[in-house]
Every structure is written in C-alpha cells, then in structure tokens.
C-alpha cells in the first residue's frame, strides 16, 4: 500500500491528553507503527517508486536483450554443427585445397622409404645409371656389388699414388726384429741389428714366430743377411705364404754380430692391417 503522510501538531497544554492525541500532537504506538509500515512498504516496493530512468543508472548503454542461461550457453559452445553458419570464405578456407591429409605415421613412413617411391630416374638428378657407368668405365662389376671391380686392359700413363701405408716391427725369432713397411699391396722388409740370443745353425730353423695377417707374401720369399764385419757369417730367412718364418744360418753368427739385410719386397693380398 502507498504511504500516507501524517500531520504533526504542537502540543497544547490547555487541552487534555486525549485531545492532544486526537489533534496529532502526541507520539502513539499507532502513529509509530504507521511510520514503520510505511518504511517497510517502501523498501519492498519494486515498482520503481522513485521513477529512476535507465539513463540515470547507465542502462541506456546496454542492449535490452534477454540473456541466455548457463545451460543454454554451454550447449551453444559445444555445438559442432556450425550454428552460426560460418562459410569457408569467411575464415580463409576457400584458399585451401579440400583434400584428405596424410596421417603423421603415413607421412613418416613415406619420408623413411628408401625404395625410391617417386620413381626418380638418374637423369632427373643429373647422374648416370649403373649400366651407363659400367659402359663409360669399360668394366664389369661383380654380381654381388661388393665394390670390387675387374678392370680390363688398364693402361696407366701417369703416376698411381697409394695413400694407404703402415710400418711395423715384427719379431722373427731369437730376439731379432725386422722392419716391415706396407704401401698398398706391396710389403718391403729391411733390418739391421743383432740377435738377442744365439741362433742354432742348420737348415731352416724356426722359433715359432709368424708374420701377422696383412704382411704375408703371395708366394714364398727368401732374403739374405750377413754380418757387417764378416761376410762369411750369413743367413737366409724364408717367409712362407701362411706367415711362418724359417732361418738358415751359416758361420756361427754371435749375439755381438750386427746383421744387415738387403731390402726385399713382395706383393700381398692380405687385408690391410688396422
């Protein structure tokens, strides 16, 4: 209900209490309750009793539209059916080919495929085919493609430079060592020194020493060595294809005799020593 304003009058001492109450000059419970009820009614009044306008509270800047509930909002955000009808052109997809993309596993498999899946030819990358190379070099490559080749009618007009070489001192028995040098497939042996112990005389003695793989001759090789101070003291050393070493000394070579060997070379087909 609407609040009705009360009129308050000055208390008149010439009147009785009842007359002053009737005249509105005395605070009574009825008049106080009337005030309280008026205040309460005003506080619960949602009919805009002060006539506040939207502009006064800034609502003129807000669109007066109904807001969606949280349930409705959540439903909209999870809607994958393109509810806003967005077109491909609006987000730039009209510039992308609409084709299926390969899975990452398929892509990785293709990248690691060494079987020439695109069938690229030798001419496309500026090289020769195996047959063209064989023809140009006039050679026959072994069928197992091991890298070994057979060259027919090789004519060398310049210098062949061999870069693979190794030097090694090898014991040959009775405290004596020989110097071996291998360059490519050629082994050269030289020596100058003394025996550590006395070597027995006689035909083809062996101390059990052997040439290591990498220095063995393609065919048996025999070298001669003699004492520097007495040429009548000499010895023969034989290197066999299996690597075994044999000696034959004459003249009772002593441990004090310095023995010098003429340089000897041979061809080996052993793998190159590492």
Describe the protein.
With 274 residues, the protein is of the alpha+beta class. Among the domains are: 1-43, no CATH class; 165-267, Immunoglobulin-like (Sandwich), CATH 2.60.40. 16% of the residues lie in helices and 23% in strands. The chain is built from five helices and ten strands; from the N terminus they run H-H-H-H-H-E-E-E-E-E-E-E-E-E-E. The strands form two sheets. An eight-stranded antiparallel β-sheet has the order 3-4-5-10-7-8-9-6, with no helix packed on it. A two-stranded antiparallel ribbon has the order 1-2. A hairpin with a 2-residue loop joins strand 4 (176-183) and strand 5. The longest helix is centred in the first third of the chain and has 15 residues, at 29-43. The model has no long low-confidence stretch (mean pLDDT 87).
Q: What does the average pLDDT come to? A: 87
Q: Widest sheet: strand order?
A: 3-4-5-10-7-8-9-6
CATH superfamily of the domain at 165-267: Phage tail base-plate Siphoviridae RBP, head domain
Extract low-pLDDT stretches.
Answer: none
Radius of gyration: 59 Å
Main sheet attributes: strand count, strand direction, barrel closure: 8 strands, antiparallel
> What percent of the residues sit in helical stretches (DSSP H or I)?
10-25%
The computed structural class is alpha+beta
Order of helical and strand elements: HHHHHEEEEEEEEEE
Query: What quaternary form is this?
Result: single chain
- Beta content: 15-25%
Helical region count? 5
Task: Indicate the CATH topology of the domain at 165-267.
Answer: Immunoglobulin-like
* CATH level 1 name of the domain at 165-267: Mainly Beta
Q: What's the total number of strands?
A: 10
Task: Assign an overall shape.
Answer: elongated
Name the CATH architecture of the domain at 165-267.
Sandwich
What's the N-to-C terminus distance?
115 Å
